[in-house]
Amino acid sequence: MLRKSDLFGKFGGLMGITPSLMVAGLLSACASSSSRDTPAVLTNPTQATRAELRLAVQRALHSDPVLLAPDALTTTNLLIIDRFVRRDPAGRPLDGLNFGGRPEQFQLVRVNKECVLVHLGVDPIRQTMRSATCAPLPRKKR
After folding, report:
1. Which strand (E) or helix (H) includes residue 135?
2. Domain assignment of residue 73, given as a range
3. Residue range 14-46, pLDDT digits in tens
4. Are residues 50 and 95 both part of a single domain?
5. For residues 22 and 2, what is the distance between their CA atoms, to the nearest angstrom?
6. Are residues 40 and 26 in the same domain?
7. Per the structure, how many domains does the chain have?
8. Nearest Cα residue to 118 out of 5, 11, 38, 45
9. Distance CA 38, CA 77 (A)
10. Cβ–Cβ under 8 Å, residues 134 and 115
11. Reduced to 3 states, what is the DSSP secondary structure of residue 14?
12. Does residue 46 share a domain with residue 18?
């Protein structure tokens, strides 16, 4: 026959409960990391910031260099990238069939004081922008 002390050990149940609580706490922290993301815009972007942004987008898309507007991510936290289809003189796509995939979407968020570029998709890719400064996206006035 089991005694209460056999089930709960010397510490009144802390030994059995603590690992479960620790795992639950870790899981909730991981799940809520994106809930701390605050939509943000770039403030006073420098040439270094623009270069870092271009490189981050290029890495996420596994592509050649990309062309971005000078004011990218300064008025909105969303960046939409359409794929450029290279064509021959007759207008045919150089890479064969073009199935016209969806535009790529990026979002700038602020996590604590860091600016993070998130490539939205099935597996979001997060890249911290070291040279950037950002501020929370201003709320629209009603």
Report:
1. strand 134-136
2. 34-136
3. 444 443 433 334 333 444 455 689 999 999 999
4. yes
5. 27
6. no
7. 2
8. 38
9. 10
10. yes
11. helix
12. no
Assessment of whether the complete model's pTM goes beyond 0.70: no
Tokens 């535009």: give the residue.
Answer: 103
Look at residue 68 in the predicted model and tell me its pLDDT.
Answer: 93
Please check whether residue 79 is in contact with residue 108, taking contact to mean a CB–CB distance below 8 angstroms: yes
73 token code pair: 């991510």
Cα(82)–Cα(5) distance, integer angstroms: 65
Whether 58 is in a domain gets the answer yes
Q: Give the pLDDT confidence of 59-109 residue by residue, as tens digits.
A: 998 888 888 999 999 999 999 998 777 778 888 777 665 555 688 999 999
What's the pLDDT band for 142 if we cut at 50, 70, 90?
low
In the structure encoding, which two tokens stand for residue 122, read together?
């099935």
Selection from 69, 95, 73 nearest residue 84 by Cα: 95
